[in-house]
Amino acid sequence: MRTSTRAAVAVVAALAVLGPIGWFWFDSLVTGTYDMAAMGYPDYGGGPATDHDHRTGIAVADLKGPSGTPDVAVTLTAGKAGSRYTLNGASPGPEIRAVQGQLIQVTLVNESVPDGVTLHWHGVDVPNAEDGVAGVTQDAVGRGQSHVYRFVAKDAGTYWYHSHQVSHEQVKNGLFGALIITPRGATRSDQVAMVHTYQGKRTVNGVPGISDISSSAIKVVNTDAGPIRIWVSGTTFRVTAIDGRDVHEPGVIKDQAVLVTAGGRVDLRLDGPGPARVDVGGGAALTAAGAVQAALPRDTLDFLSYGKSGFLGFDPDRPRRRFSYDIGRRFGFLDGRPGLWWTINGHLFPDVPMFMVTTGDVVRMTVHNGSGEVHPMHLHGHHVVVLSRNGTAATGSPWWTDSLDVADGDTYEIAFRADNPGIWADHCHNLDHVPEGLVAHLAYTGVRSSFQVGGPSGNTPE
Amino acid sequence: MRSVYRALSGLILIGFVVQIAAIAAAWFQVLNDVDDGGVFDNNTRNWAHIVHAVVGAEVIPLLALALLVVSFFARIPGGVKWAALTFGAVVLQVVLAFAGYSVPGVGALHGLNALVVAGLASVAMRKAREADAKPAPPVAVA
Ligand SMILES: [Cu+2]
């Protein structure tokens, strides 16, 4: 072959290899500032194809909580020192308590967090503008600025709050706290156990190792990125609530661990009377004097068949829309970066579905995980009920959840009622997975965006 | 181009050495951290895990891709073939790494395939050296 021919063949071969790679790279680039609601493609779930124009209708920013004199008013001042984040100088931040029906007002002040902060009320189905997602429901609160959140403590339960700006970094390094809504007239005392791993050390309420147990009602909050297994020594116990929703007629548990997924909460009631200990792994525990630690039970409680079945309040068998949220993983470019990224229904972010609903819809969703790793899936603004796992129907108490542990290979059927208009994130609560593409949104017809990701506030929800 | 080919295949070999050292260090580091009361959970990654991830998922695939592209111009007998095989083995290596998350047993194949990558890269390096030793033969691109 002549030299010139040979060179031409080499160039063609090189282009054949590099050309497609370059095209995929270019195609993946995302502009610095964008409207989250305009990303991806609308998915109507087989229901009526409603208007997908995000420029008309009611604005997200107008979907605010009520005005009036707050019953509970708290100021939270966010700070950053080194890599640690604090609220009012501490991590976890202050425990906020309210009685069901009270109006809560939280003033967030950013004293020294360079990237800006927000507060998301994890598990509380607040009005959309109070949801605290930077670039979707508000602008990030810059240094020296403040933002007021107002919402009614509608449902009693165990919740938590955390930043939703650069959240994979800010939550890991301390920007969170507990939010407890107690039923009216409740007299029972309880003890909150915020479980968090700081720099590789697992803690309960910021304390590594063992702390004193002070109540037989323990509210466990997993603020970490991965699921934890907790277990009780010295007594039998019950799980009285999951993700802020009571379990209907919970049974006695013995020799079983309880899985609390990332972002999830579980309320325990210890039967006593002996000295008890609650272990959360990594040597961290709440314990009474004289309690003897048992080994981690091999068996784990299955919420699917726990408690007695009860009334759902809607009929999930006649849904208006059926969505699929299929999590995978593949090689590709995400905003120009090559790597193995999470996919939703086979697509990489931002080419992901926008689940479109109308107020009042009954919605069913099939969540499948074929990605190789567990994903704690968290839908903002709604509680979903689990109907089945891998084809096995739920037979226990209605399992209402906002943070669902979807293990590799698992398929869940879930349902919910679309009763909270807005634009809501539906993402993995292993927050490191969000910048890797594991976030979609649920959007209501007739709601238009008010904020943009990026922009002058540097909104970075993930 | 021949020296670039040789250098790239040599760098892949060095990458292989870094990888086996890093992954061993990573897990000894985990044992040490857990001994100190640390927890090993979903997102635990120490410095050596990060080295293994960056070198394995980014550096070596880029080197293998560059080797393949350079092979088209290097005019080394069998050069394209060995570069393509090396590249294929590297792709398989990344696939096996992530398949191992679902099926941990696949991790054993990841370990074994690492030897295949190293073997192919060293053959590629030898081909470049042999081509250098001989006067440039009139070979076609193949
Ligand atoms: Cu995830």
TrEMBL record, chain A:
Transmembrane segments: 7-26
Protein's name according to its UniProt entry: Metallo-oxidoreductase
Keyword check for Membrane: yes
Keywords, comma-separated and alphabetical: Copper, Membrane, Metal-binding, Oxidoreductase, Transmembrane, Transmembrane helix
Pfam families, alphabetized: Cu-oxidase_2, Cu-oxidase_3
Organism whose genome encodes this protein: Actinoplanes palleronii
Domain Plastocyanin-like: 75-184, 342-442
Key word Protein biosynthesis present: no
TrEMBL record, chain B:
Keyword terms: Membrane, Transmembrane, Transmembrane helix
Residues that span the membrane, as ranges: 7-30, 50-70, 82-101, 107-125
Domain of life: Bacteria
Record's protein name: Uncharacterized protein
